[in-house]
Design brief:
The protein is α+β, with helices and mostly antiparallel strands and 278 residues long. The chain has 3 domains: 99 residues, Helix Hairpins (Orthogonal Bundle); 47 residues, SH3 type barrels; 81 residues, 2-Layer Sandwich (Alpha-Beta Plaits). It contains 6 helices and 10 strands. The strands form 3 sheets. A 5-stranded antiparallel beta sheet has the order 4-3-2-1-5. Strands 6-8-7 form a 3-stranded antiparallel beta sheet. A hairpin with a 3-residue loop joins strand 7 and strand 8. Helix 5 packs across helix 6. The longest helix is centred in the N-terminal third of the chain and has 41 residues.
């Protein structure tokens, strides 16, 4: 009790432990603030119905960061009490190595799934294509992702196999429609009719009014006119079908024909001449 060096060493250890815990708390606070900022930025880019997923990921990241920092702090505190950390770290390393070798694919799936959600590559409800599979995302798990195709099949894909993803639900898309007008028709009049029809088109999926680009191609049977329309993500097939219907009705009302197969026949008369007819 009267050993001055003992008390000095004890006081130094206590001060170092307090300093370690203080630095630990400051580190946890900084990391949590950074994660909250990232999560808020991600939530702003997604609908409110999908914000809970990013909030969940943010909590998971904060918990993982806290555990790692507290683990390091605990090791440093134990070292202050003279406990040899070598055997503990060696045992943890061997255990982690054994788990890593025994579950490589599982670890890969989980890590990939975590980064899919973290980087917001796609979300539930998005239409995506990965490899040969295309459909609507139903579930995003840490190990697998479930996609339902438009014909009803459900594909369950391990996250580790998702190498390339095409997301059709983020940006607006273009509906492209080509309509062919017969050679016998006046092209300028046909273009005027098409422009009037497109100007009056109303649809909830339209972002901007359809644009008539003009003559796209001249073929043997007619002239092809191209129309484009900017629409909401992944709605271009539905809008293209509506454009085709409206164009057909308008062309019929204005008496503008589209090319169709024709046959010309020749009839020989009694005098050996040729009389043609269609």
């Amino acid at each position: 009790m009267t050993d001055e060096k003992l008390w000095q060493g004890f006081g130094s250890s206590v001060l170092r432990i307090i300093l370690i815990l203080l630095i630990c708390r400051i580190g946890v606070w900084i990391i949590h603030k950074t994660i909250n900022r990232v999560v808020l930025e991600r939530e702003a880019k997604r609908p409110s119905s999908q914000g809970r997923r990013m909030t969940t990921v943010g909590k998971l990241m904060k918990n993982v960061a806290s555990y790692v920092i507290y683990f390091i702090a605990a090791m440093l505190v134990l070292s202050e009490f003279g406990i040899d950390l070598g055997p503990l770290l060696a045992g943890a390393g061997v255990l982690g190595l054994a788990i890593g070798f025994g579950a490589q694919s599982l670890v890969k799936d989980i890590i990939t799934g975590f980064f899919i959600v973290l980087e917001d590559q796609f979300a539930v409800g998005d239409v995506i294509q990965t490899g040969q599979f295309k459909g609507t995302v139903e579930v995003i798990g840490l190990r697998t992702t479930r996609i339902q195709s438009w014909t009803g099949e459900v594909h369950i894909i391990p996250n580790g196999m998702i190498n390339e993803v095409t997301n059709f639900s983020i940006n607006n898309t273009l509906a492209v429609v080509d309509v062919t007008v017969a050679f016998e028709e006046d092209v300028d009049r046909a273009l005027e009719v098409i422009r009037k029809t497109m100007a009056g088109l109303q649809d909830e999926n339209l972002v901007n009014a359809p644009e008539v680009l003009g003559v796209q191609m001249i073929a043997a049977s007619g002239v092809t006119v191209r129309i484009i329309a900017e629409c909401k993500p992944n709605t271009h097939p539905v809008l293209a079908r509506k454009l085709n219907i409206e164009l057909k009705k308008s062309l019929d009302e204005n008496g503008i024909e589209i090319p169709y197969p024709k046959m010309v026949t020749y009839h020989r008369n009694e005098k050996g001449g040729v009389k043609d007819g269609a």
